[in-house]
Write a structure and sequence with these properties.
Elements lengths: L2 H11 L9 H11 L5 E4 L5 E5 L6 E7 L4 E7 L5 E6 L10 E7 L2 E8 L8 H5 L8 E3 L5 H7 L5 E4 L4 E2 L4 E4 L2 H18 L6 E7 L7 H10 L3 E9 L8 H4 L9 E4 L5 H13 L5 E4 L7 H6 L6 E9 L7 E4 H16 L10
Parallel strand pairs: 3-12, 3-13, 13-16, 14-15
Antiparallel strand pairs: 1-2, 2-12, 4-5, 4-9, 6-7, 6-9, 7-8, 10-11, 11-17, 14-16
Helix pairs in contact: 1-5, 5-10, 8-10
């Protein structure tokens, strides 16, 4: 992975982007893609749309959502503690004892989220799964008035952000879901832009995926692509307790995952596989018999229909503070999508 590309990934991971509050990360995306895109635009929903060769006949859209799960301040406690709603799908167990950040108009405010200590839990409480309503945020405020001076109702909250590189080319960070997928679509555009590209290639940083695939729906309607490929994370099953019979055999470092199933156009899938084989890109296959809970779902049923594919990045510990991916997997995914786009002549028929 090139140094500039890796720096861009780290910048994405260090920038907050809870659903509904994506502007900071979209500013980072805009600044980066202007170096190689022919046009960069932001729609009214907040999606950042970068394109190379916008006037070509065949339109190909790559979608990577920029939003992460988070929280939203909803209540002041009389003693200065704060309560929050969730944005996206949280497991409350993952939040206990975490360092958090509240993103206010005045700047970030550090917080911790916790519950009463184990020493004070009753026997019954120890046997129960913690509930979100039993957790609170502590910013060190003396009282409700001080908390209200610093934090407004509706301010977003994230886990403390950062990037940690590990052995064997692995790395962990909050919000690898889906900033690593966003990185892939932007990098694929950059790599394809330097080659003999014959189609209009759009890379879209979509918003609000975690609350209902909303950004992909609106951006795809505006672009009206013929082909759409979403890039998102998928569950790695190379750790204990996960049933590979149900969730597939997916490992970190074994390459991007190409998904087969009714949500996918068979011609797009086979072309992705063929390009991976041509370049000897390690890749994995998984199957899914239902509509996907990611941007590929919205892409497939846009307008009169889009020839859709899904390239997934193996991710351990999804929706946690330590989401883990392989840097090689995302680098290979960017190469795969760039090769896919450059392999198109512009007159292909993707009708099944």
């Amino acid at each position: 992975m090139e140094t500039a590309a890796k720096d861009f990934l780290i910048k994405l991971l260090e920038t907050p982007s809870p659903s509904g509050y994506e502007k900071p990360i979209q500013d980072v995306v805009r600044a980066y893609v202007r170096q190689f895109a022919d046009q960069v635009a932001t729609d009214v929903h907040g999606n950042v749309i970068a394109v190379k060769h916008p006037h070509a006949k065949l339109r190909v859209m790559l979608a990577g959502h920029c939003d992460q799960i988070g929280m939203l301040i909803s209540h002041y406690h009389d003693n200065g503690f704060l309560h929050a709603q969730t944005i996206g799908g949280w497991d409350a167990q993952q939040l206990i004892g975490q360092r958090m950040v509240i993103w206010t108009a005045r700047g970030p405010i550090p917080a911790v989220i916790s519950r009463k200590p184990i020493h004070l839990l009753t026997d019954e409480e120890r046997r129960q799964v913690v509930k979100l309503e039993d957790l609170w945020l502590d910013i060190g405020a003396k009282n409700k008035e001080e908390a209200r001076e610093l934090v407004r109702i509706g301010d977003p909250v994230t886990l403390q952000l950062g990037f940690q590189e590990m052995r064997n080319g692995l790395a962990n960070a909050p919000a690898m879901d889906n900033k690593c997928g966003l990185w892939v679509v932007i990098e694929a555009l950059r790599r394809a832009a330097a080659r003999d590209l014959k189609v209009a290639l759009y890379a879209v940083s979509t918003v609000a995926e975690e609350i209902g695939l909303r950004g992909a729906q609106t951006s795809a309607f505006g672009i009206d692509p013929h082909v759409g490929i979403a890039v998102d994370v998928t569950h790695a099953t190379d750790c204990p307790t996960i049933d590979k019979r149900q969730h597939g055999d997916v490992s970190l470092g074994s390459g991007p995952v190409i998904v087969r199933g009714p949500n996918m156009n068979p011609h797009v899938v086979e072309r992705l596989i063929a390009q991976a084989q041509k370049l000897e890109i390690p890749h994995q296959l998984t199957a899914s018999g239902k509509a996907q809970p990611n941007d590929s779902n919205a892409l497939q049923i846009n307008r009169a229909g889009v020839a859709t594919g899904l390239v997934s990045i193996p991710n351990r510990y999804m929706h946690s503070a330590v989401e883990m991916i392989s840097l090689d997997d995302i680098d290979r995914a960017a190469d795969l999508l760039a090769e896919f786009a450059c392999s198109l002549r512009g007159d292909e028929d993707f009708t099944p």
